[in-house]
Specification:
alpha/beta; Rossmann fold; Methionyl-tRNA Fmet Formyltransferase, Chain A, domain 2; 2 domains; elongated; methionyl-tRNA formyltransferase activity
Length: 274
């Protein structure tokens, strides 16, 4: 059977890919590399979703902060497969597998290279996106293309639903090409495209309720869509838009210091402010 070392730490999406790989019954997972536990909500140190999944399924897992050296316990695999890891692998790791180190990127490279391809595809109004498997290189998202597969972006798709589809597709593509990888001729990337830079809280700030459809689909839950409002006492507060109605106007909202509520029930008490 084909063996691999899997790299993943992106919320539950990396775990989704790993689960699909295991379900195929065609692969042996020698080890999983993920990031170390980090402080989460309320400062509680939390393991990655992938880390917890591995512990529950008796898969050897290595939460590594430093990738300078390869743990001696890990048996040399046929492949390294990276799906949502967010760190560059050095030459030691790239040369470690017997066959190849492969990365799954959730866009049709070279367009939307970067850390937030799915959110940016929605924000830019794309009708299609996809997955690109590349032969890894020492640079992010610059490797030669092994295979690409497209999917439609539906009007109802959010960053969550798209990521779910794309991480599922990533596993399927790897399972399909791994047995016949020797028949694939890697293709260098040509041209360039929009770079999907990291999003910040500032990207979710709005001054009006235009374009809420794209914004809420792309930016919720992080970094979220928000603005400032003032109440009847002229107090400035943060308004978070949790969802929109059929007219693409705020529906469920969260006012700073209060519980979630319907915008239609409270809008008369607040006004937008800059």
């Amino acid at each position: 059977m084909i063996s691999l070392v899997f790299f993943g730490s992106f919320q539950h999406y990396s775990t989704l890919t790993l689960q699909k790989l295991l379900d195929s019954k065609k692969l042996i997972i020698n080890a999983v590399i993920t990031t170390p536990p980090r402080p989460g909500n309320h400062g509680i140190v939390t393991k990655t979703h992938t880390h917890l999944f591995c512990e529950q399924n008796n898969i050897p897992v290595f939460p590594l902060e430093n990738l300078d050296s390869i743990p001696t316990e890990i048996e040399k695999p046929d492949f390294i497969f990276v799906s949502g890891f967010g760190k560059l692998l050095n030459e030691n790791w790239l040369n470690f597998p017997k066959i190849m180190a492969i990365n799954a990127h959730q866009s049709l490279l070279p367009t939307y290279a970067g850390r937030f391809p799915t959110q940016w595809a929605i924000l830019k109004g794309e009708k299609k996106t996809g997955v690109t498997l590349i032969k890894m290189s020492p640079q992010f998202d610059k490797g030669e293309i092994l295979i690409q597969s497209k999917i439609n972006i539906l009007p109802t798709d959010t960053s969550n639903t798209l990521y779910t589809k794309l991480y599922d597709l990533s596993a399927k593509l790897f399972i399909n090409i791994a047995p016949t990888i020797d028949k694939i001729i890697p293709t260098p990337q040509s041209g360039s495209g929009f770079y999907a830079r990291q999003l910040t809280k500032a990207d979710g700030y709005i001054t009006n309720f235009d374009n809420l459809n794209k914004l809420t689909r792309a930016l919720n839950p992080w970094p979220g869509v928000w603005t400032y409002v003032t109440d009847k006492n002229n107090k400035k507060l943060i308004l978070k838009i949790l969802s929109i109605d059929k007219n693409n106007q705020p529906e469920n909202v969260l006012i700073q210091g209060k519980k979630p509520t319907k915008w239609s029930e409270i809008s008369k008490y607040y006004s937008l402010t800059s």
